[in-house]
Amino acid sequence: MTDQERLVTLLATRSAKRGQFVLASGRSSTLYIDARLTTMSPEGLSLIGSLGLALLEERRWDVDSIGGLTLGADPIAYAISYASACSPRPRRAFTVRKEAKKHGTSKLIEGPFASGDRVAIVEDVITTGASALRAIDAVQAEGGKIVGVLALVDREEGGRETIEARGIPVAPLVRAHDIVARLGPVSP
Fold it and tell me: pLDDT digit string (tens) for 108-136?
């Protein structure tokens, strides 16, 4: 089994559930993907780090840093940053807060992000693209140059197209149909 197949299997067995769900976007769905059950596990972190780094290199996204909206993006960005540590081009990880701190430096972006960085935005599961766009706006407001969005899972519900309509390419590691194929038929 390849690392890609192992990641799909982990997502299908640990993170995907069938039923009736309301997603963060407000949409209803019969498929729920709680990516954190995979992204916060040792096996998931190991696979995501190496596969994410390989995808950045395959796309030739020459980035300085990688991150996205907390909490979903955090373990993905950290895993990729860690995997890049021994590469010729290490990438720094950062986190975009949902709102600026009310104390200290009042930062919206935490970590070693710097104005002028070439950035890959990370998203755990893209549905509408709203979370990724929120992170994009925050990073651009601080002087970051967005190279693309790396998604763990594209639910294939229009979010990728919404982001790409802003001229930002999206590269998913896994698509929802790959996960659904591993779930098997729906029980009656």
Answer: 999 999 999 999 999 999 999 999 999 99
